[in-house]
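Researcher: Dear colleague, please comment on this protein.
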Amino acid sequence: MSEPGRTVRDATFDVLRRHGLTTIFANPGSTEIAFLTDLPDDIDFVLALHEGSVVGIATGWATAMDRPALVNLHTTAGLGNAVGALATARVNRVPLVVIVGQQDRRHLALQPFLAGELEGLAGRYPVWVTTPARPQDVPGAVARAWHEARGGRGPALVIVPSDDWSAPADDTPPGAPAVLHRASAVDPAAVDALTDLVGRAESPALVVGADADDAETWSALVELAERLRCPVWQEPFAARAGFPQDHPQFSGHLPAGRARLRQVLAGHDVVLVVGAPVFRQYPFEAGPLVEDGTVVALITDDAEDAHHSPVDLAVVASPAPVCRRLAARLPERTEAPLRVADRVAPPPPPGAGEPLRAAHVMAALAQRIPAETILVEETPSTRPDLHRLVPARRPLGFLSAAMGGLGFAMPAAIGVRMARPDQPVIAVVGDGSSLYGIQSLWSAAHYGCGVLFVVLANGRYAIMDRLAEQHGNGGGKPPWPAFTEVSVHGLALALGCPAERVDSYPALVEKLDAVVPTLGDRREPLVLEVAVEPERTFQP
């Protein structure tokens, strides 16, 4: 028998506790009042001022914690505002349990104010969506959402009418396992096939991606790369680094156009891709991805990536154990020349009268930040400079939005810092990008998240300007204006977040020298708006 007076809300909180979902990231609405009012003392609430920031903070938190985060959204408006951020979470493969409020079940048939057509609103980006048939099915649906989010590595949505929370709980067994273990054994036949393919290669290469970003996979890939004595490339547009980027064999990021991609991989008879799709491109170029005679194989734990990747051999399995077994099986290529990549020299500081550029900022950061720093990136026009000059030296050293939409970096950096309060976190963001997530700065200040936000301010959408110029005949003219009137540090101050603007290289290094050593135990965020010259070229 169910305990007298026990409600669906009580039973759901027990489910949340069982699965470690005791922090709710939300922007509240009226359809969630019954759920959120008088929270138990062991349930924390984190407020963000826009649903994109809510999901972004939760995405950063879940990424750093390596487990699902709990999000609460307010019917059509809240879910609609959050769809872009949910899409980013899906493509970044981040598990989220999302409870979406709905109008009272008792008059939904009359389509009351704030009722929403919610199940299809986020399209196919959720890994699972349900509206429980009865109020008593809500706890089991939330439990299943945790498994769906964890297994599918994305957002799982449960739509809950507002009156369900106060309904009496019953003894119906929840429609989800209490504990779920996933088998991780490596198929010997798969390792045999990979060993045969890579073992016959005369000039192999490795390409790594975001799904290789953990200590175990990095270790296995280093062992494999050193055994093969081959170059290692990072996939384009990766959300995370798949290999230590200060390793001598790391060769940089693959280009995002087919012609340059073929050029980079030319001469390699076997390309082994680990933890990445094959190959994400932007923009479209005609022609094959690789030259004739180049065989491409893929190791990934993402079946969707395997299904759409044009490869000769795909293995769906956890990358770390497969790579470790593969390295143990392959003979060391002692006769092969060691492929050591050339390193790009940082630019010298700007001289008197020279403008401050993004590359100067990246170089100054690289000289000062410790290896354990988590750097969150959203600076499209200057991302190549960041990749060249600021290597990820530890797992989770680099984090970005694989989806490509803006508004990720600021809230994600806050969520990462909430999850890892003693680890340095820096967000490097363009001023245009910052405006998509600027509301999140209130959360950073209110909750004491000591993130350093370095905002590269050129007063325009520089990447769009460059793309327009490349598209037009003899230099295309963009119809959008610059927005030099916008003061990012002024907006930050208005949101209660400490902020400063620097306009010169000496002022930049003085501020970095003062702030960077404090990032490990800093409890106050800082927005550093850095005035930089717009870049005149761009090559993705």
Notes: The chain has a mean pLDDT of 92. Residues 75-91 form the longest helix (17 residues). The CA atoms of residues 227 and 245 lie 18 Å apart. The two ends are 62 Å apart (CA to CA).
